[in-house]
Amino acid sequence: MAFPVQRPRRMRRTEPLRRLVRETSLAPEQFVLPLFVRAGTNVRRPIEAMPGVAQTSVDEMLRDAERAANAGVGGVLLFGIPEHKDASGTESWSDDGPVQRAVRALKQQVPDLVVITDVCLCEYTDHGHCGVLVNGDVDNDATLELLAREAVSHARAGADIVAPSDMMDGRVAAIRRALDDAQCAETPILSYAAKFASVFYGPFREAAESTPRSGDRRGYQMDPSNAREALREVKLDLDEGADAVMVKPAGPYLDVIARVRRTTLVPLAAYQVSGEFAMIKAAAERGWLDGERAMMESLTAIRRAGADIIISYFAIDAAPRLR
């Protein structure tokens, strides 16, 4: 025919038409906001590389959590910055640790907000690695018991979900056994199953004060080149008892998110990490991008790839735009 009968533009002509046929939708309750908690009162320490993000004391954290809840955000993910660090990260399972105090305060003040706790040792160790060091290397099996103790401590404080991010082999099984033995059998595990050794974590190191003093984490976090290995890690964690799994980072690994979605039925989370957030913020501040549109497009892409849960520092800003 001289002119095409098929005209896809017909269904793009107006905003109501575009809304009607939109294939991917975002909702505020799909968002999880990361929060960094430390000791003290009236503490708010801005993170230079992450505009609008700060380390806070529990009282200030509650203000941020209430803002998130009022915006319709589904949950928060807690990271703790302890007052004292040691070789084993013992403050990670202290009943008076920053995360434990934050969980108790959140369940009392903002009970409808889902509280997820990051289970790892890197913020708590004086060497900055995610486990116990033996001869300069992380000892996988010696680390499992410590991670399990941390997870049980979070669950007893009232965490809705515990989320191990360390990438030790066998940690999901160790945590599941410990939770069950501690009468915390109802506490689900969201495993950072496919966590890549990514340059995009850079600003997070400042936020969590977790930069390794020596070496790096490539011996336990995944090689960015590997996608099939990610599927293997996901399967292993599910076999060990994970209730949900995560891909981290999100934006540079949309292909991995999509492959995990096609091969699993459990809830799938994706973490839009600090470097992704910082790049959009920096470009927007310089006028190189429309910051709001870049924020929403990046979140939509993560959802389109197959994520059910999106962990993002944009959560409070993005949620009101979806109501």
Task: Give a nutshell description of this structure.
The protein has 323 residues and is α/β, with parallel strands linked by helices. The chain is built from 11 helices and 12 strands. It has one domain (25-322): TIM Barrel (Alpha-Beta Barrel), CATH 3.20.20.
Structure explained in plain terms:
The structure is a single chain. With 323 residues, this protein is an alpha/beta fold. It has a single domain (25-322), classed as Aldolase class I (TIM Barrel, Alpha-Beta Barrel), CATH 3.20.20.70. It is built from eleven helices and twelve strands. It has helices spanning 15-20, 58-70, 98-109, 140-157, 171-181, 202-208, 228-240, 254-263, 274-285, 291-305, 315-318, and strands at 31-38, 44-46, 54-56, 75-81, 114-119, 133-134, 137-138, 161-164, 190-195, 244-248, 268-272, 309-312. Strands 1, 2, 3, 4, 5, 8, 9, 10, 11 and 12 form a ten-stranded mixed sheet that branches. A two-stranded antiparallel ribbon has the order 6-7. Helix 8 packs parallel to helix 10. The longest helix has 18 residues, at 140-157. The termini are far apart. The mean pLDDT is 95.
Mind telling me which CATH architecture this is? Alpha-Beta Barrel
Alpha carbon gap, first and last residue:
44 Å
Please tell me how large the radius of gyration is: 20 Å
Proportion of beta-strand residues: 15-25%
Largest sheet: 10 strands, mixed
| Number of contiguous helices | 11
Parts with pLDDT < 50 across at least 5 consecutive residues: none
Succession of helices and strands: HEEEHEHEEEHEHEHHEHEHHEH
Looking at the structure, the CATH topology is TIM Barrel
Shape: globular
